[in-house]
Design a protein that fits this description.
The complex is a heterodimer of chains A (445) and B (321). Chain A has helices at 2-16, 19-48, 82-87, 104-107, 120-141, 146-152, 173-210, 213-218, 223-260, 292-302, 308-336, 340-359, 361-366, 371-376, 383-390, 397-425, 435-444, and strands at 51-57, 72-76, 96-100, 111-114, 161-163, 169-172. Chain A has 17 helices and 6 strands. The radius of gyration of chain A is 31 Å and the shape is elongated. Chain A starts with a helix and ends with a helix. In chain A, strands 2-1-3-4 form a 4-stranded mixed sheet, with no helix packed on it. Chain A has 2 domains: 2-39 and 172-444, no CATH class; 50-152, D-Maltodextrin-Binding Protein, domain 2 (3-Layer(aba) Sandwich), CATH 3.40.190.10. Chain A is an alpha/beta fold. In chain A, helix 1 packs parallel to helix 9, helix 7 crosses helix 9 (223-260) and helix 7 (173-210) runs antiparallel to helix 15. With 321 residues, chain B is α/β, with parallel strands linked by helices. Chain B has 2 domains: 3-228, Rossmann fold; 232-296, Alpha-Beta Plaits (2-Layer Sandwich). Helix content of chain B is 36%, strand content 29%. Chain B has helices at 3-7, 50-57, 98-108, 113-126, 142-154, 172-187, 199-205, 223-230, 245-250, 278-286, 301-320; strands at 12-21, 24-34, 39-43, 65-70, 73-74, 83-86, 160-164, 191-195, 208-213, 216-222, 234-240, 254-262, 265-272, 290-296. In chain B, helix 3 packs across helix 4. The longest helix of chain B has 20 residues, at 301-320. Classes of the chains: A alpha/beta (445), B alpha/beta (321). Chain A binds chain B through residues 2-3, 6-7, 10, 14, 18, 207-208, 211-222, 423, 426-427, 440, 443-445, and chain B through 21-22, 55, 58-61, 77, 80-81, 83, 85, 87, 89-96, 104-105, 107-110, 152.
């Protein structure tokens, strides 16, 4: 055990002290935080800067129904034509011009002029408002009463609720959506971690082979001791880096929010639409936007039906054992091949089993207890990801237990096999990586 | 030197070791015994099976047949801690610093950390590497790396030291320094197995040798005995001043192989015919001049190596025909 600890210590310290580790640990959060902050900044900039839209309304009616929307303010211009505005657009004080032609009742089209890119939200808003108005007016023309129209145009809201086996409601749609997000997050974290640090194990083993340190190690310690020390050491490096990434990213985002958004940000509400024409219902075009951070906090606070202790416990377990399994496969590949370049091409085939649940994620989430999901969460190569995808939706305990047991046993088998290959790989210097060489390697040991 | 060493003496006995790799024999019934506090040479051409033999001793691979005992007891897993192994292909972590690297390898041999630090100071002094103790391995020259590797091999005071080509990569001065250390370790009681192609160092250092060729052991014994057994009927006679070689050429009992005049001395290399004793020869040679010395010419280990290998090849060839 003492030797395994010494190996663990070296593998851990030599990497943590490495410049590239320090660099990655600092750059990672900066990159992640800026990915979170930059959209917020753009949003803030957009919200604070008012954009003026001139309406030239030849119908002399429809323009009235368009109210200010988000950062857009609409002004009906009567004393100028489109041509006049365009002639001196830069000095007109407008960002865009909405032209409602006289023949709108026949052509059903309007034009937005702008010297900047027109926001999709603006386009959707204008389109939606005018369509409703035109519908409304067409119906009025046919002598349909305003009351009937409002009845006819009432949108239907489809609420989704999830039942348990007894038919009791356990969650609503919003909660399901959040579970999707949680499942995707956990699966992505495990996937990235395994690929990133599994390859580090592969590199380490190849480095020992090319520098011939392997011969000294094998003459001093048992290969299993060495392999466990190495894989655990690198795993802890990864864990440390991940924790630092999360902590630093959250710190940076929180700090940036303090500086950039000192006042709590209140999302803009949708204006009432088509009031002038008497329509009473106001369907939503867009849901109000909240900031990413608020959303993340909200996500964990309001989620019902998730057993957090089991969820976190399972995450830690599948995170660690998923890594152990793939790390030992990578170590085995490193042990029987010589050159780094030659080995890189084997990384992709090995990670395909890992990729399958990642690609099938929507399917697993849509049917977390279906045959495919259950099988994927039992097969040890896919279970770390598949099980995490299923977990937020509730999984029978015996499924988790069985999946965990299979994974533990497979891990033990693969770490042992990697150790065996590490020893016998020594006798295979200069040989090409092939199925045959794996078989001989096993036979030689 | 101290009590620890007295009890650490080790007798290694290799008995009838056979090992096959994928049908080809790497070692075929090899046996030898390394006495305590001695240097044992493991010789043989490239690919003879020396490395396989060493790896079996290090328990990196298991023999198919045969047994290895240490002080009469079968080899145990924990014995690796009493062995120091310097592989022919040196291996150090390029990014690690010298002292760190040596201490790491010592820790893998289960050596106490403080004891290891103490020993490290001793060796750093001894081999004068103090100025680069905190340098990374990749910054060192090959010879410097070899020194680091040597220290890493001996730091944990192994009872059995296995050295594979220990002097390669060293300049003559450093090679001598390492040689002196090897001799010192032997005198302090370490049992040493030396695998090398450098026959001069075999003559200089080894007490006993074993010659392995094509997986078979073809020579085994004390260096002196082996040289004597390979010595033919060749002798060197030195005469003071002039010697009359004419009469010698005419006699059927001996043959002149060579003649050198070295200042005041004339040296003749002669081969005695069968049934001619050295006394007969001396009596005969006395007539040619005044003899200063008469001694047997012993073959060098280099010659023995080549001769033994060639003989083995021939006899093997003969068997096949």
């Amino acid at each position: 055990m003492g030797k395994t600890y010494n190996i663990f210590k070296r593998e851990f310290l030599s990497r943590v002290r490495n410049k590239s580790f320090v660099l990655m640990t600092i750059l990672g959060p900066i990159l992640l935080a800026s990915m979170l902050i930059i959209p917020l900044l753009i949003e803030k900039y957009d919200k604070t800067r008012e954009k003026k839209v001139a309406i030239i309304d030849e119908s002399h009616l429809l323009g009235e129904t368009i109210r200010d929307f988000q950062s857009y303010t609409f002004t009906i211009v009567t004393n100028a034509t489109v041509d006049e505005l365009s002639a001196d657009f830069a000095n007109s004080g407008f960002d865009a011009v909405l032209f409602i032609p006289n023949n709108i009742y026949n052509s059903n089209s309007v034009i937005l002029y702008s010297n900047v890119w027109v926001d999709d939200a603006l386009k959707a808003y204008v389109g939606y408002t005018l369509r409703r108005d035109l519908e409304y007016m067409a119906l009025l023309k046919e002598n349909v009463s305003a009351e009937t129209i409002s009845k006819v145009t009432t949108p239907v809201f489809v609420g989704v609720q999830k039942w348990n086996a007894k038919g009791e409601t356990i969650e609503n749609e919003a909660s399901m959506e959040k579970k999707n997000i949680i499942a995707t997050c956990f699966v992505s974290i495990i996937y990235i971690f395994i690929i990133l640090y599994g390859v580090l194990v592969l590199r380490g083993v190849i480095e020992e082979k090319t520098s011939r340190v392997v011969e000294i190690i094998i003459s001093s310690v048992k290969p299993v001791q060495f392999m466990s020390g190495k894989i655990l050491g690198i795993g802890c490096v990864g864990l440390l880096q991940f924790i630092l990434w999360i902590v630093l990213t959250l710190g940076l985002v929180a700090g940036a929010q303090q500086i950039l958004f000192p006042e709590p940000y209140v999302p803009s509400e949708m204006p009432e639409i088509a009031e002038t024409l008497g329509a009473s219902t106001t369907p939503k075009i867009m849901t109000p936007e909240t900031s990413t951070m608020d959303y993340a906090i909200n996500l964990f606070q309001t989620l019902d039906g998730v057993n957090w202790p089991v969820m976190i416990g399972a995450f830690v377990f599948f995170f660690i054992f998923g890594y152990l399994l793939y790390a030992s496969i990578f170590a085995g590949i490193g042990a029987i091949s010589d050159q780094d370049t030659e080995t890189q091409q084997f990384v992709i085939p090995v990670t395909i089993p890992l990729l399958i649940p990642f690609i099938l994620l929507p399917l697993i989430i849509s049917d977390p207890n279906g045959t495919l999901s259950v099988w994927l969460s039992l097969i040890p190569f896919t279970s770390p990801l598949a099980m995490m995808a299923r977990l937020p939706f509730g999984v029978p305990y015996w499924h988790i237990a069985m999946s965990a047991l299979i994974l533990i046993l497979t891990c033990a088998l693969f770490v042992g096999a990697a150790a065996k290959l590490y020893r016998s790989g020594l006798l295979l210097y200069g040989q090409k990586f092939s199925l045959k060489s794996i078989v001989t390697a096993f036979r030689k040991s | 030197m101290n009590i620890f060493f007295i009890f650490a003496y080790m007798i290694v006995s290799v008995q009838h070791i056979t090992k096959c790799f994928a049908g080809t024999k790497a070692l075929d019934d090899v046996s030898f015994e390394i006495p305590e506090a001695s240097i044992y040479g493991l010789l043989g051409p490239n690919g003879a099976g020396k490395t396989t033999c060493i790896r079996i001793l290090n328990q990196m691979i298991r023999p198919d047949a045969g047994e290895i005992t240490i002080d009469g007891k079968p080899l145990r897993e924990s014995d690796v801690e009493r062995i120091g192994y310097l592989p022919e292909e040196r291996g150090l972590y390029k990014k690690m610093r010298v002292a760190e690297q040596i201490l790491y390898f010592a820790s893998l041999k289960n050596m106490d950390k403080n004891h290891a630090k103490q020993e490290l100071e001793f060796w750093i002094d001894k081999l004068e590497i103090g100025s680069w103790r905190n340098k990374r391995i990749e910054e060192l020259s090959k010879g410097m790396q070899q020194k680091v590797q040597f220290i890493a091999t001996v730091l944990h005071k192994p009872s059995l030291l296995i050295l594979d080509e220990p002097f390669s990569g060293f300049d003559p001065v450093n090679a001598q320094a390492i040689k002196n250390e090897v001799i010192r370790l032997k005198n302090e009681g370490t049992t040493i197995l030396l695998s090398t192609h450098n026959m001069n160092s075999v003559e200089e250092l080894c007490d006993r040798i074993s010659l392995i060729h094509k997986s078979k052991q073809i020579l085994n014994g004390a260096v002196g005995d082996i040289r004597n057994s390979f010595a033919g009927n060749t002798y060197e006679v030195a005469f003071s001043g002039y010697c009359d070689t004419l009469s010698t050429t005419l006699t059927p009992s001996l043959k002149i192989l060579g003649k050198q005049v070295d200042g005041n001395l004339t040296k003749l290399q002669i081969e005695l015919m069968p049934q001619v004793t050295t006394n007969d020869a001396i009596q005969f040679l006395m007539k040619s001049g005044s003899i200063v010395s008469f001694q047997q010419i012993l073959p060098s280990m280099n010659d023995i190596f080549i001769q033994a290998v060639e003989q083995h090849n021939k006899s093997e060839h003969g068997e096949n025909v």
